[in-house]
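Researcher: Please translate sequence to structure tokens.
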Amino acid sequence: MKKMKTSCFLAVDRPLEDVLKTVEQFKNEGFDAVEPISLRNYWDDSVAIYNAERIKEKVEELGMAVSCYSLAVNMLTDPNAMTLLKKTTDLAAAMGAPFLHHTMELHMTHHNLPAYGSVEPTFVKLSKEIAEYAGEKGITCIYEDQGFLINTPDRLDLLLSKVDMPNTGVCLDVGNSLFFDIPAEEYTGRFASMIKNVHIKDYLYRTTPPGPDKWSRTINGNYLKDCPVGYGAVNFEKIFTLLAKAKYDGYYSLEGTGHYDRATGVKLALNAMNYYYELAEKNNI
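Model: Translation complete:
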């Protein structure tokens, strides 16, 4: 039976020394790869590539890989979005990442949203431009079900068809679609042949008001809250089985561990991920 290829989000918005120590920590926790993620332009240009190359060296020294590079960017409100995307692509190349995953926008509420048709041309134009730039460096751009403007299978499908670049694909986030009250297996089945990377997290899902703790709201007014992988509403067995049938051979990258301490959350997550992966492989025999 194949071994599951695990990865973990690696925040790089901090000093290089701290990032390298975290890479070692992930190795000790049992991960096979790291997925660098940044929320801003965090390194000065004069040292950025140097730092990226040091991360690549550390990862290779430990026998690990860089599974993907993820960037949170808002194409609609950030006038420097393309500059940031290109700089991040350079960093991804320096780290040896095969994929660049970037957001389109960061709306996580359905209130006061612009009409999708009014913003799609911006998404398509900028996505084409960065995919062309990334292609020159051998990098594939991948897009996920993130934010209320992209978070339906139809819109993601339409976006991919309009971008229409050979080096594009899908990053499956197994939790994000719940914000639109859509199970992730619907995305998995529809885009199985295009999925290049998988983000792992889980949510408790309620249709009735919870207690006083803060919960996120879905498009239909239901309730979501982070929880350990395997404890919530995500149907990992079905999702992983669909991926196994599609012969997906990429990484499963842990994004969230719920509200446990790091050590406990990671242990629970890896146990659950491997359990469902092995179950899916057996289902596919």
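Researcher: Any highlights?
Model: The chain has a mean pLDDT of 93.
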